[in-house]
User: What shape does this take?
Amino acid sequence: MVDRLTSKPWLRVLLAYAATRVISFVLFLIAAATQGDNYWTRANPSYFDFLNIWDVEWYGKIFSHGYPTVLPVDSTGAVQQNEWAFLPGFPALVKSFAFTGIEWKFLAPILATALGACFALVAYRIFAAKLNDHQALWAVVLFSLSPAAPILQTGYAESLGLLLMALVIYFWLSDRLLLTLLALAALAFTRPGLATFALAFAVVWIYRFVQAWQRKRAFGVIEAARLGTLAVSALVLNFAWPLTAALVTGRHDAYVATELAWRAGYPYGGGGLNPIVPWFSSAEYFIGGFAGQVIVILAIAAAVALFFLPNVKAMGLELNAFVASYFAYLLIFFFPQSSIVRILMPTFVLFGAASQGFVRFPKTWRWIVLAFLIILQLGWLLTCWRYQAPDFSPP
Assistant: This one.
């Protein structure tokens, strides 16, 4: 009976995901035991108290009272940090379960953990479309043990956001246009960055067009229309939340001004929304001088070189286009700091490339890799999740 059950891929995925959540649970307890008195909790907080710090507080405020109609500003008129930086998808979903009578502190992480399980199942289906079952399962395991993976069981929007991203990719690969559009629409109100998908769809469209032209064949009308529809829809949906913020607050820059409020404490406002500049501003602030600039250039070169690796190429055009587009999105809009470990989680498809090499390792080396990932996860919790004022390493 047990053998029959564990022979089912979906059950193996869920068991593997559950095991990684237990590991993260233990690591959270270890980190909590070292947590001192802070803005959110007393020293040595309980598991659920420890999960409800950092941006979980903002999602909790949205869950409780929604968004302000007037943006908070300081004496100079500069917009201050507020709820509009956080999209409503996750807190709205949690709110739909409020009938259970379970308070936010418990309900949000419980739902997030369940959503993470759903993501693991969809991610497995994506990996299985490119890899064998063994490699696909290990791709899920490796991702679930990655440094920022504990976020999947907190009241952040990562679990839901990753699930919706995975659904967009899965439906896209399955040629299910309507379902892809529905997943994109839900994602537009859960996590920012739909421009990533717009660019990925456009890149694949251009590639297919050039490929057809080189082979002197017509570019399929249905495929061209499908990709064009997806690209345009994703681009339009990219502005859905900023437009909502503008309509409610009466300020056309409500969302952007709110996002930039988190950069206000850095030199030059963290580089503002100028393309690429924030990366060099960040390097100047955290590293300084020539070394910082060199590291940025090397990071960009490494990101480009990644796509020439055979294991990465094996993941296919669509997945590579998505990851490359996400890298481009971060290069243009993101201000790098400690949260980049979490922000890079949408590149989960790269774990499919990693698993191809991992399964060829001797068993001893595989255990060493897994142990190393767990150590990195604990390091992330102690460095980024544990709070010690003044803390400049947010998760």
